[in-house]
Amino acid sequence: MAVPVVDPSLNPVSERVAAEPPPRPRRRPARADVLAIGAYALLGVFVCLNYWVDVQNRVSSHLPTDHSWFEWLFQHGAYSLRHLENPLFTTRQNAPDGVNMMANTSLLGVTLPLAPLTMLLGPQVMYALYLGAALAATAGTSYWALSRHLVRSRAAAFVGGAFLGFAPGIVHHANGQPNFVSNFLLPLIVVRVLRLGEPGRWRRNGVVLGLLVAYQIFINEEMLLLTALACLVVVVAYAIQRPARARAVAGTFAAALGVGGGLALLLTGYPIWFQFNGPQSYRGLQGGVFHSWGEDLAAFVTFARDTVAGDEAVERTIGLTEQNTWFGWPLVLLSVVALVLLVRRSLAARILAVLVVVFSVAAIGPTVRVNGVVTDTDGPWSYIPDDVPLVEMMMPTRLALVVVAAVGVLLALAWDAVAGGGRPPVPAPRAGDDAAPAAAGRRSRWLRPVGYAAIALAVLPLFPRPLPAQPVDPPPHFISSGGWRPYVPAGRTLVPVPIPSNVHGLPTLRWSALTGQEFPVPGGYFIGPNELGEGVFGAPNRPTSTLIYATMDTGSVPALTDENRRQAVEDLRYWKASVVVLGAHPREAVLRELMTGLIGPPRRVDDVWLWDVRPLVP
């Protein structure tokens, strides 16, 4: 998320000249800084509270499969480090074809450094611990950027940082998508971009920017792209309003940008090549499925589900997409009033206004929706082809995350103005007007509490609630105890029933994650290529997996033929299976009947039904 920071030679709130220099950097964090970071950390724990009730056996109620995927990713980082394998690719899922981890949301910049902790604590603990920490860290770096580069009031920076780290749209993504709350590098990137024009520091600024960008690529490329677009708009808006200054620093800015871009490309060139050209890479998503995900106009004034003022029932009307713009009407009203009051005297506010307008419009998508009703009015994305590189995989609604950032910065500016950091000087009284100073004093006495109250009333309804969680069954004892080991030699796979997919098989995907990924499984939860090279969710269904899913959906076993049995053996051979395992499941009876009809009777081993298929698949 982008945090606009203007040229340090101008006060970004009231545009006072450099005769009033910004405060000197502190050698040590002030007590206010420590309190702010501590508050963010406590809020991160609070948001994840429902996971900590039973961290080993709880997942997100809203996105349980995504939650399990990220647990699997933490284990992937640990497995790659423990076995010294290439983390950009894995065959522990979707065996034998594997998964291109660079072409998926892999969070390698987090899972690899934290691999020792994952080995020690396990992926469930690591997931909950990291999720809260990422929220708090994003708020913390936003607080640092705001307090050091934009506002004078530490309280203003605290409010802005809290919103940037725990905004409704961000907390919504915390339901199973920690990659979208891992935004702690983005404020640092934005600060560095807007310092590229500093004279005499172009090499250092470029190197630091390149390192930050390279690291962010291994956390979330989509958020990096959104930040780059936001920075582009900020720089252009600044150049239009300060053309002389922009021309003066253009050469230095370009040189530093070249250094940063070159270093980032040098460090990430091979992984990016691997993402688009390595095994199991793909070109775009089949049918451009994300392009229809635009924001409902009513969402802007609606309270998000996971806030104290939110109502889950509203999702049945306008909750068709992510809740990135669900600010609630008080915050929307406050933002409009704040912009009206600040734009005349604040360059930063004018830039924020441009960001809000541009990215709010862009987030609408291909058609305009109002309160769940699709209108006949075309949105901006209706004019964008589905096959534009990079853009082809973006969801329009996620452009609203830039609006989230702009609103967070605006809150900081508004609080700072109320506190006096951006208050313009009181006009000099006219001759004979002895009442003017007294009137100005009275105005300042009532404006401050009114301003604080207005901000509080706008943001307090957005205070997050603990993320909803649901229990999930642990793996069978046969799996967790290692009872599977004699049945799965090196080079062979364990086929769980149901086979993991983006729709079915949440528990069986966790079997892999919670046992250190020591056995490979077919299928999984990922994006890979279809026969045309387009990205699709999960592995293309084979005849046997299709039969399994159909049986689960209908609750009955279809009439089986010799062709079904031949295909089952062929599929097992393709998967390099050595054993098929069925644990406790709501459809256990019909699934056992199906597999028995396809490959023969099973054996009861410990707490699972087991088919040793090595005689069928030599």
State the helical fraction. 40-55%
Name the strands of the widest sheet in spatial order.
7-10-12-11
Strand element count: 12
**Quick one: biggest sheet?**
4 strands, mixed
- Tell me the Rg in angstroms: 27 Å
Unreliable runs, pLDDT <50, ≥5 residues? 2-24, 422-433
> What best-fitting shape do the alpha-carbon axes yield?
elongated
Number of helices: 22
SS-based structural class?
alpha+beta
| Average pLDDT level | 89
| Share of β-strand residues | 5-15%
Distance between the ends: 53 Å
Keywords: Membrane, Transmembrane, Transmembrane helix
InterPro entries: DUF6311
Transmembrane segments: 34-53, 127-146, 155-174, 224-240, 252-273, 326-344, 351-368, 399-418
Protein name: DUF6311 domain-containing protein
Task: Give a structural overview.
It comes from Micromonospora deserti. Keywords: Membrane, Transmembrane, Transmembrane helix. InterPro entries: DUF6311. This is DUF6311 domain-containing protein. It holds the Pfam family DUF6311. The chain has about 625 residues and is α+β, with helices and mostly antiparallel strands. Among the domains are: about 100 residues, no CATH class; about 140 residues, no CATH class. The protein is about 50% helix and about 5% strand. The strands form 5 sheets. A 4-stranded mixed β-sheet has the order 7-10-12-11. A hairpin with an 8-residue loop joins strand 2 and strand 3. Helix 1 runs antiparallel to helix 6, helix 11 runs antiparallel to helix 12 and helix 14 packs across helix 16.
